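User: quick one, fold this
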Amino acid sequence: MKGKKNIAIISLIIFVSIWFWGCSSEDVGGMQEVEEEKASQAEHQIEKTDTKEPIKVTVSFYPYYDFSKAIGGENITVKQMVPDGADPHSYEPSPRDLIELEGSDVFIFNGFDMEPWIADVLELIKGKDIVVVKASELIEGREYDHDHDHDHSHDHNHDHDHGEFDPHIWTDPMNVIKIAEEIKEIFAQIDPDRHHEYALNFKDFEAKLLNLNHEFESIMEEAHTNIILVSHSAFGYLADRHGIKEIAVTGITPHAEPNPGRLAELTKLARENELKYIFFESLANPRTAEVLAEEAGLKPLMLYNLEGLTADQKEAEEDYISLMEKNVEAIRKALTE
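Assistant:
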C-alpha cells in the first residue's frame, strides 16, 4: 500500500510541476510577445523620425544657402533664388521662384536694400505660414558715403539705390555668428526633435567663424599698413572691426565705373602709401581695377565677396569658410609684405 501511495504522490507532484511549468511558459511567452511588440513600436518610431519631412528653406542668394546648410545639414532642403553669377541687386524672381517660395517653411534674405525686389516677394507671402528672417535686423548697420559712391560714371542698368547702410553684412565672420544663431533657433522651433543636432552644428560653425576672426586679428599685429585697395566696397564691416582702411575703386556698387579724376586720385594714393597690391573679385568686372593696377604698378590679388560661387568653386566644393580662409591669406599678404 505504501508503494502505491508513494507512486500516487510522485504522480501528483509531476502533474502539478508540468501544469505550473506550462503556465510559466505561457507567461514568459506573453512577456516575450510584449517586449517584441515594444521593440517593433520603437523601430517603427525610429523609421518615422528618419523619414520626417525636411525643413524647406528658401534664401535670396548664396551666403544664406551656406549658413543654412551649415546649421541644418541633411535635415533641410535649400532653394537659392539668385543663381550664382547673377547680381542680387538687379535680379528679378521668376514665376517658378515664387511658386517654390510659397511652399517653403523658412525664407531668409539679407536686407539693407541688397535685394531691391524683395518688397514684392514679401507681399506675396504675407499671411502665409512661412518664417521670414531678415538678416540685416540682426546687425548694426554700417553707414556708407553716398556722395563718394555716386561720384562715378554709371551704367544706369546697374545703378541702384542701396539705402542708408552698407548691405555686405556677411563678409564679417562675427556678423555671421549672429545670423547663424538665429537660423539655429528657428530650425529648432520648427523641428524640436532635432534641436540638439542644430545646436551642435551651430557650435561647430561658430568655432570656425571665431577662428577666422582670430586670423584677421593676428594679421593686424604684424601689418605695416592698414590700407587695402579693392575693386568695390564689399568688406567694410570686416575692415571696421579690425582697423583696416578699405579704399574702393567703385564704391558700394560693383558695376559702377570711376571717372578719370577718381582714377588719378587712387593712383596717387597707392604711390604715396607704397601699396603693392589691388584686390579683384571673382564675380565683378575687373576692367577698371586692371586700369588702375597698370597705372599705379600694382599686383592683382583675388578677394572673394561670397555673393555667389563660380563654376570652378562649385566643382572644388568651396564654401564660405574655405573662401574666407583664402581671403585671410590674401589680406595678410597685402598688409604684411
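User: anything notable?
Assistant: The chain has two domains: 55-140+165-208, 221-336.
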